[in-house]
Amino acid sequence: MKIAITGASGKTGYRICEEAVKKGFNVRQIIRKNSKVSDGLESLETFRVSLQNKKELDKALQDIDALIIATGARASLDLTGPAKVDALGVFRQLESCKRVGIKRVILVSSLCSGKLFHPLNLFGFILIWKKIGENFLKNPSFEWTIVRPGGLKENEDIKSENINYSKEDTQINGSIPRRLVAQLCINSLKNKESINKLIEVTSSNNNKKISFKKAMQMI
Ligand SMILES: NC(=O)c1ccc[n+]([C@@H]2O[C@H](COP(=O)([O-])OP(=O)(O)OC[C@H]3O[C@@H](n4cnc5c(N)ncnc54)[C@H](OP(=O)(O)O)[C@@H]3O)[C@@H](O)[C@H]2O)c1
Q: What DSSP assignment string belongs to 22-79?
């Protein structure tokens, strides 16, 4: 199975690439023209595209069986970033998927997506645009999975972290290491029970350990 990962130069994106390679997937990373390829991923097939360029995007998604979207507006003074990347950017990627025939898509979104009164919205109403991006994906054209993580952490020591999986709009606080989110995206790809599900995730060492498969049966 050949998969593409957009936002592969990001802190979650590169970990998704690493986890996908570990699990034996054939991986193509899709990044921006000026993105830095993450250390250790130099040998992966790499396409550099602008999300605004239909032709480039279609070419980058050609011959791909599944797409994992890990793009997200980077914090900046440009408050239009979330609208451009988290809504329109997702829309453009999905339109390209339709043109080239990709059905399976996994989107990394965010806990509290859709909430209006939230401090994160000081950055260009990001949670509203994320929800709009999610809604583009919840469409019969796709076999979709939406992953909504809590605050993302850089720690790689995940041995004692157990995931709290839950349905849409059930968690509002908490955090999770990016490594666990990356593993979760790859688990979703491998498990058909994650199709057409929205999964909220945080982690801590207080949660009971539960398998991904079992979690999907509960959601
Ligand atoms: N930070 C948190 O605590 C948190 C919590 C929940 C959910 N999330 C969401 O989880 C996802 C991953 O977060 P992260 O912090 O790991 O990401 P990140 O390190 O900020 O990486 C973002 C990725 O998106 C790409 N990107 C940004 N603008 C783009 C554009 N206009 N066109 C194409 N690509 C673009 C970046 O490319 P460049 O490398 O070229 O900039 C990078 O690859 C994001 O959607 C984020 O909103 C974050």
A: HTT-EEEEEE-TTPPPPTT-TTSEEEE--TT-HHHHHHHTTT-SEEEE---PPS-S-T
pLDDT digits (tens, 9 = 90+) for 51-101: 999 999 999 999 999 999 999 999 999 999 999 999 999 999 999 999 999
Catalogue all structural domains in the chain, each as residue range(s) with its CATH number. Answer: 2-218 (3.40.50.720)
Given a contact cutoff of 8 angstroms between Cβ atoms, the answer to whether 23 and 1 are in contact is no
Ligand 1 site-directed mutation target among 74, 86, 184, most atoms within 8 Å of CB? 74
Tokens found for residue 33: 């023209």
Q: pLDDT band at residue 198, thresholds of 50, 70 and 90?
A: very high
pLDDT of residue 59: 98
For residue 16, CA distances in Å to 33, 131, 182 come to 20, 22, 4
Ligand 1, CB within 6 Å, residue ranges: 7, 9-13, 31-32, 35, 51, 70-74, 84-85, 89, 108, 110, 149, 151-152, 178
Neighbours of 79 (CB within 10 A): 13
